[in-house]
């Protein structure tokens, strides 16, 4: 393209030699630069103001050549919302509900609990008319429906807001995960205990509830005073310990009651020195260890997180810790709940859970689910988060069959059985619940088809516009002997971008006092 000044000279070279009455149509076209050749693509950095035939910089790069179909729409691929084959379903994080999602996934993978909940009598669900949406009311109804969706939904993830709302949880504030677990199981136990089916009445006790006694022994007379207590989980101090065995040993260790802390003995009828310790009497099928990572710091008067590395085995023998009774005490690791972050008041919760059917490990991170390679637990980057640069310590080496973590806050072990009946790990959703799941799947498929159609229509429209613009772009430069029109550059840009959203051509601002196109505007 010739320099702008050269274009201006060429346009007005005749003006000094031609009288006004001798001006011809040819002179006018020279002034308006009609015959100046169009700039070739790639020769100009921007649109040339001195050349009305320059078509560079008006958005042509978006329309010439091959274009990705995604450029024709802003609709996400609905396939990204569909559950992949042979994968699990995630849960939406409603703001600060990741701790709820981790427990829900762990409980869903407790097959005995899931099977029991499917037997929960739910007359509302059984008599529901599929012409309207099903809305659970009680906690058990919500959990029952949620588990059915997690098992057979076509969605990649589902929304647990109904259950969260029924529990009265604040979605914007992270609650104490340990307290939530205990209170939820207690609430579930109370509800199920009122069922007529004895298997339902006792499922929470059988699965999660163990028993120990605080046993106090008088040093003077030797009298033992047991105080029975139930537990859903064993709360273990991790400070100063390296592995799970040390933590359990400290939990059960003997404590001396002396001085101001002496024990009042009913036999001696006076305060006496004594010893007190915890005796484990029965263990549940699912044994939960709560690692006390969040402790009160007296100096700051706030909670703080302990980043202590604790190792734990894949197979745990609880026999040495159990008092008196002979029962199966070997447990297998089935889940590890992780807290990511350096603060006790914030952070993110995820869960590593072993599939009871395949023994594969999965990482559940709200909507995202990742299958671990092989059959081994892989904690991955969850262990790369340290409290401060000064507190970073090397991860200790773990023996074969052990894992090590400074972010695990709950370990879940399942009682090991001699023979595993694989048929027990596969069971269908009851018909009355499957009907509700099918109803939700139908809604999803309708949404999917609607999004897919909208996406296709946008692509088809974009392809048609693409071809139209390509053809028009080739016709835009003027040719000798053919009629032509001037259009504003900004209007042409908008038309190329979206021809349906622009107004009619308005050249009024470019006209001179005689109602003609102002020739000097070509030089601005």
UniProtKB/TrEMBL annotation:
Main location: cytoplasm
Subcellular location: Cytoplasm; Nucleus
Keyword list, A-Z: Cytoplasm, Hydrolase, Nucleus, Protease, Repeat, Thiol protease, Ubl conjugation pathway
CDD domains (alphabetical): Peptidase_C19L
An example Gene Ontology molecular-function term: cysteine-type deubiquitinase activity
GO CC, one annotated term: nucleus
Stored PROSITE patterns: USP_2 (PS00973), USP_3 (PS50235)
Biological process, per Gene Ontology: protein deubiquitination; proteolysis
Domain USP positions: 89-416
Reactions catalysed: Thiol-dependent hydrolysis of ester, thioester, amide, peptide and isopeptide bonds formed by the C-terminal Gly of ubiquitin (a 76-residue protein attached to proteins as an intracellular targeting signal)
InterPro entries from the UniProt entry: Papain-like_cys_pep_sf, Pep_USP48, Peptidase_C19, Peptidase_C19_UCH, USP, USP_CS
Entries under PANTHER family matching the protein: UBIQUITIN CARBOXYL-TERMINAL HYDROLASE (PTHR24006), UBIQUITIN CARBOXYL-TERMINAL HYDROLASE 48 (PTHR24006:SF722)
Family, per entry: Belongs to the peptidase C19 family.
Protein name: Ubiquitin carboxyl-terminal hydrolase 48
Organism, as annotated: Sinocyclocheilus rhinocerous
Lineage: Eukaryota, Metazoa, Chordata, Craniata, Vertebrata
């Amino acid at each position: 393209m010739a320099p702008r000044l050269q274009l201006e000279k060429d346009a007005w070279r005749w003006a000094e030699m031609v009288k006004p009455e001798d001006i011809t149509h040819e002179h006018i076209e020279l002034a308006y630069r009609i015959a100046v050749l169009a700039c070739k693509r790639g020769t100009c950095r921007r649109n040339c103001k001195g050349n009305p035939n320059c078509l560079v910089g008006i958005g042509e790069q978006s329309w010439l050549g091959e274009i990705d179909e995604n450029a024709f729409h802003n609709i996400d691929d609905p396939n990204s919302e569909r559950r992949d084959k042979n994968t699990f379903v995630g849960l939406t994080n409603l703001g600060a509900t990741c701790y709820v999602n981790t427990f829900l996934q762990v409980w869903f993978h407790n097959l005995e609990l899931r099977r029991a909940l499917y037997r929960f009598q739910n007359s509302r669900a059984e008599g529901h008319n599929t012409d309207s949406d099903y809305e659970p009311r009680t906690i058990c109804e919500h959990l029952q429906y949620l588990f059915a969706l997690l098992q057979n939904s076509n969605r990649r993830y589902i929304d647990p807001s109904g259950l969260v709302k029924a529990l009265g949880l604040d979605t914007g504030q992270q609650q104490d995960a340990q307290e939530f677990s205990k209170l939820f199981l207690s609430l579930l136990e109370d509800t199920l205990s009122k069922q007529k089916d004895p298997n339902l009445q006792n499922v929470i006790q059988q699965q999660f509830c163990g028993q120990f006694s605080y046993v106090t022994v008088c040093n003077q007379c030797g009298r033992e005073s047991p105080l029975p207590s139930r537990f859903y989980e064993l709360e273990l101090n991790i400070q100063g310990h390296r592995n799970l065995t040390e933590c359990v040993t400290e939990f059960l260790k003997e404590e001396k009651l002396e001085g101001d802390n002496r024990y009042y003995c009913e036999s001696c009828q006076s305060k006496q020195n004594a010893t007190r310790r915890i005796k484990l009497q029965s263990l549940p099928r699912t044994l939960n260890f709560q690692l006390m990572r969040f402790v009160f710091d007296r100096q700051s008067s706030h909670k703080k997180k302990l980043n202590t590395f604790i190792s734990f085995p894949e197979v745990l023998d609880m026999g040495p810790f159990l008092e008196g009774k002979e029962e199966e005490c070997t447990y297998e690791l089935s889940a590890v709940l992780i807290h990511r972050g350096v603060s006790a008041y914030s952070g993110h919760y995820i869960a590593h859970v072993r599939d009871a059917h395949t023994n594969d490990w999965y990482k559940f991170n709200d909507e995202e689910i990742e299958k671990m390679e092989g059959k081994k637990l892989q904690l991955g980057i969850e262990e790369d988060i340290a409290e401060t640069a000064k507190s970073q310590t090397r991860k200790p080496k773990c023996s074969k069959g052990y894992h090590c973590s400074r972010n695990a806050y709950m370990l879940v072990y399942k009682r090991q059985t001699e023979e595993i009946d694989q048929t027990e790990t596969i069971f269908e959703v009851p018909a009355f619940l499957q009907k509700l799941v099918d109803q939700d799947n139908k809604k999803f498929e309708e949404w999917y088809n609607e999004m897919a159609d909208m996406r296709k229509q946008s692509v088809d429209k974009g392809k048609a516009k693409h071809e139209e613009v390509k053809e028009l772009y080739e016709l835009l430069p003027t040719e000798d002997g053919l009629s032509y029109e001037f259009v504003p550059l900004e209007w042409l840009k908008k038309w190329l971008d979206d021809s349906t959203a622009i107004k009619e051509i308005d050249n009024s601002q470019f006209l001179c006092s005689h109602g003609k196109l102002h020739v000097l505007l070509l030089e601005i």
